[in-house]
Amino acid sequence: MLHLKKSLGQHFLKDENIQRKIADAIGDLKAYARVIEIGPGMGALTKHLTKGKPDNLYLVELDDRWAEYQKTTNPWMGDRVVHEDFLHADLTKILAYPTHIVGNFPYNISSQIVFTIIDHRDTITAMTGMFQKEVGLRIAAKPGNKDYGVLSILTQAYYDAEYLFDVPPESFDPPPKVMSGVVRLKRKTVALQCDEVLFKKIVKQAFTQRRKTMRNSLKSIVHAQDILANPIFDKRPEQLSLLQLEALTNLIADSK
After folding, report:
1. What single DSSP character describes residue 251?
2. DSSP string across 180-213
3. Contact (Cβ atoms closer than 8 angstroms) between residue 162 and residue 140
4. What's the predicted TM-score (pTM) here?
5. Strand 124-132 vs strand 57-60: parallel, antiparallel, or unpaired?
6. How many beta carbons lie within 10 A of that of residue 231, not counting itself?
7. pLDDT, tens digit, for every residue of 103-143?
8. CB–CB of 230/243 below 8 Å?
9. What domains can be seen in the chain, in order of their start residue?
């Protein structure tokens, strides 16, 4: 038995029922040109995905020991076992439209994985993954919720997000100190109706001072002071829906 690496956030899922629930949430692999599992480790989820030896499944594993383990366990996959860091790999070599990203993600890089998915949103149409519950709730949070923030908005600008179910610590070996949860993302069919670069800038700046009104937090961005009379600037960022943030972005863009 290989030892786990705390530095890589390794906690392996041992609960067979949870493994099946995640596999069921992923659904039919044939619906995608690519299904990419991040961090398969010893294969708790992989064993459900490899049934029938699908030719569109890729495994991306950073740990050299587990990469070798997967190559030995699934020799039929050949070079589709990719021994690289997902966050720094040249994903254009393995992505194809449509791609579904899956996995029990290392918690120390899970938010970065989501942002990487967003960066490749033209190709990645779905994600089913396990996160620390706190992060999962932030991804799926709605306006007015304390968990609603930059991660929620930038994810939901491009994907419909759904928090599916909790996964308790005792489902893992070794058990983490936190509750986990499974989240599903599905790519939206309608694009943002605003300048995406400005939208992202506004969201990030507003939430660095989330207790302030939009009028106070965005005054360095707004050059036409007359638009600050609009009631939308009376709101705090967590009060604004995605549609309102789009409208606000267009208001600021049009005032320049």
Report:
1. H
2. EEEEEEEE-SS--SS-HHHHHHHHHHHHHTTTS-
3. yes
4. 0.93
5. unpaired
6. 6
7. 999 888 999 999 999 999 999 999 999 999 999 999 999 99
8. no
9. 6-187 (3.40.50.150), 196-254 (1.10.8.100)
